[in-house]
Structure formats: C-alpha cells, structure tokens
Amino acid sequence: MNLYEFEGKNIFSQYGITIPKGSVIRRGDDSGAVYRALATEKVVMKAQVLSGKRGKNNGIRFCDSVQEVRAAADALFHTTIGGQYVIAIRIEECLPIAEEHYLSITYDTGTKQPVLLYSVHGGIDIEEMPAHALRRYPLDVRKGKEALKDISDIPFARELWKCFLDEDARLVEINPLVKTVQGTWVAVDAKIALDDDAFFRHESWKDFAPRTMLGRPPTEREIAVQEIDKGEEYYRGTAGKYMEMDGDIAMLFSGGGASIANMDALIGVGLRPANYTEYSGNPPREKVHKLAAIVLSKPNLRGLWIVGGVANFTDVEATLQGIVDALDEVKPRYPIVVRRAGPHEKEGMEAMRACAERNNLQMKLFGKEIPMSATAKVLAEMVH
Amino acid sequence: MGILIAKGSTVLVQGITGKEGQKAAAAMCAYGTNVIGGVRPGKGGEAVEGKPVFNSVREAVERCGAIDVSAIYVPPFAAKEAILEAIDNNIPQISVIVERMPIRDVAYCLAAAQEKNIRIIGPSSLGYISPGVGRVGVVGGPKELADEIFTPGGVGIISRSGGMTNELSWQVRRAGLGQSTAVHIGGDLLVGTSYADLLRLFEHDAQTKGVIIFGEHGGSYEFAIVDLIKNGEYTKPLAIYIGGKFASALPEGVTIGHAGAIVERGRGAAEKESALAGVGVMIADRYEVLADLIKPHILLRL
Q1: A258 and B161 in contact by Cβ < 8 A?
Q2: What is the pLDDT of residues A78-128, one digit of tens each?
Q3: CB within 8 A of A232, min separation 6: which ones?
Q4: Do B165 and B295 share a domain, yes or no?
Q5: Residue A360 backbone class (left: φ over 0; alpha: ψ -120 to 50; beta: rest)
Q6: To the nearest whole angstrom, how far is the Cα of A213 from the nearest Cα of chain B?
Q7: pTM
Q8: pLDDT tens digits for A221-244?
Q9: Which structural domain, as residue segments, surrounds residue B244?
Q10: d(CA B220, CA B243)
Q11: In Å, how far are A148, B5, B133, B135, B189 from B95, measured between CA atoms?
Q12: Are A193 and A266 within one domain?
C-alpha cells in the first residue's frame, strides 16, 4: 500500500525525522481558516496523490494570502495530478532552502537486500539524476544500526533505516531532503510504500482509508472485494483482487500469471475489460462466490470470460462452483466463455453445464484442448 | 536426474500436519519423491502419509541422516522461523511454498541462506518437477493429471506463475515434446532462485536442449538473462513470453497479477522483449507459441 505524503510525514516524525510545520485540508474544509491557524505567511499547498510527478503536473502551489490559498485549494480539488485523484491538500510552511538532497531505502532485486540511495543533488526525479550523483549503499536487513556504520553521517539515515524496518516498508523516500539556511535538516517530501503482506504485525494499518492508484477514489466494488481475503484464514487462497476498468467484458481469471497473459489476449481481440480480477491458491468456494457476485454486479456488461490454465492443485470443481453460485443468482443474458482444466475438471465443467442449462445461459465450455488465449476470440465472436 | 532433484533425493516437509503440507506430502510420495518425514513442533511421533513427524528439523536430521531438500508449508507469519530452522540445520535446498510472506522476512532468510551457500526456491513457489525423477511441491497436481502433462524430454521450463508452469508444460506436451525440469520460481519481488540462476543449471544439464520462460512486466530478473547470454554463460536455445503488455497503460506503482509485477517505466513487457530479442532470445507473442518456437531446436538436438 502506498501512503500519501501527509501519512508518510506523520510516520517520519515518529522516528525523529523533522518535517515542516503544516496541516491537512480535506474537501469541504475552510482552507482560509487552516492557513490563518498556521500563522506563517508564505506557504506551500501540496496535492495529496499516491504517485505522479506533482511538481511537473502543477500539483504544488505557493501562496501568501487567504485569497491565494482558497483559490489554490479549489483548483487542486478540481483536477487530477498525473492521473491521480487528489484526496487532500497538505499546507505547510515555506522553508528557506540552502541545499536539496535525496535519500531513500528500498529493496534491490540484484542483492535481494535493502539499498540506501543518497545524493547531494536532490529535488529532481531519481530517474533524471545522473548516475554519478547517486551513491548506493547496500544494507543487510538482519542488521540494525551497525548496517549503517560507514554512512552514519548521512542526515536522517539512522532514523529512516529504523523506520524502513520497523514499519515493514518496501520503500521510504525523502526527496528533497532540505538543509535550511539556518542549517537544519527537514524532510520536505515523504514517500512510503508499506508491505501489505506484513499487515498481521501492524494493527494500525486497518485505519488507513481504502485507496487505489487509478486516478479516482476506489469504487464500492473494489472496497467490497478487499474484504474477502481479510480475517483469520487470509492466506488460504486469494480472491480479493478486483480493479474496475472502463470496458464491458467481465473477467474471472484464475492465477496471477494467466491473468496478465489473458488481459493481453482479450485486448488483442478488440474486447475491453470491465475489470481485472484474479483468484489463486485454491480459495474455498465461498470466497470465489463472493468475488464472482461482485464482478457480475457491474452494470452494462456484454460478456463474461472465466478462464484459467491447467491448475496444479486448485480444486476446479470447488472454485467453479463458487462462480456457479453467483451465476444462479444473476442469470446473465450476455455470452459466457469458460476455459479451465485441472483437478476435478470433469465435475467442475459438469456443474457449469448444468447451471447454463437450468438458467438458459449462452455459455461455451472448453478444457485444455485449446489454449486460453484462443478462447478470447470465441468470446469476441459471440459478443459481436 | 533433474537440475534440482535426483532419484532418491531426501525431502522433508516442514508443516506436514497442515492441510496443504499433508496434500503436498501425498502428492510428492505419489510421484515417487523420497519424502522422509515432516516437522511440526509438538506433534513428534505422529505420522502423515505413513511418514514420521518430528518436533524439529534437528530431530529429523538426527533420526534420518542427511536431508537434501526441505519444503516449507507453514502460514506466512511462521515462515521466517521455519526457514531459518532449516538453514541452521544446513539443509542445502529449501523450497518455500508459502505465499504472502513479508518481504523483510524474505530478505532476512535469503541473506542467511546465501551466507551458507544454501539454495532457496521461492517464496510463493509451488515447487518444481523433473518428469520420471520426482517433484518438490505440487507442480502437475494429482499423479494421473501430472502424467497427462509431464513426460521426460528436452525442454526446460521456468515460470513466475504456478498455474502457467503447468499450462506451459501442457503446451510442450501437446507439441509432442517432453520436459527436463519445470520450475515455478514464484512471483514475489525477491526470489531466492531467479531465471539466470536456473539457466546456468540448465546450461550444464545434458538432458535440457532448450528452455522456455513465462515472464511478467515489473522487476529486473528478465534483464539479468541478457547479461548471462552476453557473457556466454547460457548458450542453448531460449524462448520467452512476457505477460502484462496492457499494464503499460496503467499508472506507475500499480501491482497486478503477482507482487513482483509492478508497473514501472522502463521495465515493462515491451522493454524486456526488446532487450532479450537483442541477444537472440525468441519472443512469443502468445504464451502457447513458446512450444512451437522451441520445437525445431529441440528436434535438431535430439
């Protein structure tokens, strides 16, 4: 989960990393009153988005009056920044900057360990930083403070490393890390990506508002699907992935790899996905039922593609039964194509066939005799 | 003999009394893998699938002698401890089936394993299979389905996806070929054994005449193949399919499919394909084409 800047700054300050004095403005708040309460003339207004280059996309405004603050708040709440939905604005004091540095810690797939990146030329995107300006320090995740013994002079390195480990982050970044003309170091920006898989040791993560990186607030369906994998048996199969898209072909994929190959195949035959959804790891019938019911609840669908590879151990009967349960409730009128194989495929296909018959569905069933991608074409022909 | 398992290799199942561990033990035994027992603290003395359960890895080693492979079937919150126990007891190869393991725990285990030259496969790996030799994990599914899909042959298979490991193996069989070893490396950002690691093993495996790979957008493991080929460390025919072309239209940072399949500029499916095509790797536009691409090369080398 990616955090907004204001959430990241709250966490940074808990680790002793200095952040600028400031507040958060939500839609409907009196931005002028917040500005006055800050009691500082020059402020910066920063659109809160999950990613996207705010500077370049006009998401950062400098103001020095109530009128300017109100106008900037209004403008920022009526725009997207690099395709990202603006959830809030952080208003903070404008600092007299002497130097801008860069500091981050993330995982390096080469060393398969964390790496600390530091540059004295911060304030620009890391991709635009010349390679020689960026110093890389490999870290050992097993070590605490002593992992930093050679670089303890880098400002906030110790605090950021502790934050990275204790918060189970996948990325922590301060850009720019500012040295003020008075000589104090301040984290002027904050980027944190948390590792969702570590949620069981972080009770407080429950309190973060639902979010998506798709340039809009999460939809009701997206929020509902996330609930499916929560609870004690979260690791018994995954059925909690749903991303709403603007097409009209509903999708129920099994398997992460198959799902991305099939998205490419569907778009390749000229169809447009209504959603991206994937279940895997042998989820029980009930989980798949919940997921399928939400996928089918989207209005104006024109087709349904239920597709997966030759399963290793996922029970094809139980998972297809979960979908049958939803089809029995919804009884869609649009064409449906199924392609699936694996353990108990015969029983699973028979359940599908019987469901099609009793509900008079337009359904074509395939096993492993044809590849998954080929059945995208079949669906395209049925839909057109 | 496969690249990761030989006939008779001894396999321990940590978490053998759980539902998935039990199922895996049964699947491995059915395929002729030499499962010597399992571990579950507090359940020592019991038996699963006729195999003894021990209280600890140490006890298993003391009672059974050298263990070649440990397969980890525990919940994600217990995975780090289980893997470290296997490392402490010098098990040379650890297959981590656990999904949704925190990345900090993964990195911790990988560092500890590397120090002792221990190979970790996974996490989030269903395992691997060498037809006619054995399997670790449940790749291929129930024995009778596995036999429909797998037969000894010259194609090595590597996949980021468990389902696609089986699906690709089936496409190979449909093309009239067999497999040497099919490995699911797992879809996490950090994997213990990468494409390049396995290609080095396939290079030295006489049975393997060529390799096919199912890759994904995101991460950098595909780019490591380019260097491997440039350095002459892998010289056999190689065909690859990279999924996730649609993802380049999504905002940066979105994860889709697997945890490692992050939308990142410069690391998309198209960039990976062009880098690999540049060193002579055959590129499939649909996954099922992989078997057709590799087939003439395999037949030529038989």
Answers
A1: yes
A2: 988 877 889 999 999 999 999 999 999 999 999 999 999 999 999 888 778
A3: none
A4: yes
A5: left
A6: 6
A7: 0.94
A8: 999 998 998 876 777 788 888 999
A9: 151-301
A10: 14
A11: 32, 11, 17, 11, 17
A12: no
Number of domains observed in the structure of chain A = 3
Last residue of a domain, one of B99, B121, B143: B121
- Concerning whether B217 is annotated as a catalytic residue, the answer is no
Kindly give the residue spans of alpha helices, DSSP state H, lying in A181-330. Answer: 220-226, 256-268, 285-296, 316-330
Which residues between 31 and 70 in chain B have a beta carbon less than 8 angstroms from any beta carbon of chain A? Answer: none
- B97 and B174 fall within a common domain: no
Q: Which domain holds residue A338?
A: 219-383
Mention every residue, 6+ apart, whose C-beta is less than 8 A from residue B19: none
pLDDT digits (tens, 9 = 90+) for A270-319: 999 999 999 998 899 999 999 999 999 999 999 999 999 999 999 999 99
Which of B28, B101, B104 has the most A C-beta neighbours within 10 Å, making it the best mutation to test the interface with A? B104
Q: What is the Cα–Cα distance from B176 to B62, expressed in whole angstroms?
A: 45
Q: Chain B within 8 Å of A375 (Cβ-Cβ)?
A: no
The 10s digit of each residue's pLDDT in B163-219 is: 999 999 999 999 999 999 999 999 999 999 999 999 999 999 999 999 999 999 988
With a CB-CB cutoff of 8 Å, which residues 76-135 of chain A face chain B?
82-84, 107, 109-110, 112-114, 127
- Are B192 and B235 in a shared domain? yes
Whether ipTM tops 0.85, in short, is yes
Phi-psi region of A113 (alpha: psi -120 to 50; beta: other; left: phi over 0): beta
Instruction: Flag whether residue A310 sits within 8 Å of chain B, measured between CB atoms.
Output: yes
| Residue carrying the six token digits 């460390």 | B233
Q: Of A170, A201, A232, which one is at a domain's C-terminal end?
A: A201
Residue A289 lies in a domain: yes
In this structure, are A118 and A64 located in the same domain?
no
In this structure, are A107 and A82 located in the same domain?
no
Task: Tell me the nearest-neighbour CA distance from A126 into chain B, angstroms.
Answer: 12
Q: What CATH number is attached to the domain comprising B182?
A: 3.40.50.261
**Overall residue count recorded for chain B in this entry:** 302
Based on the fold, state whether residues A249 and A197 are members of the same structural domain.
Answer: no
Q: Measured between CA atoms, how close is A71 to chain B, in angstroms?
A: 28
Residue A214 lies in a domain: no
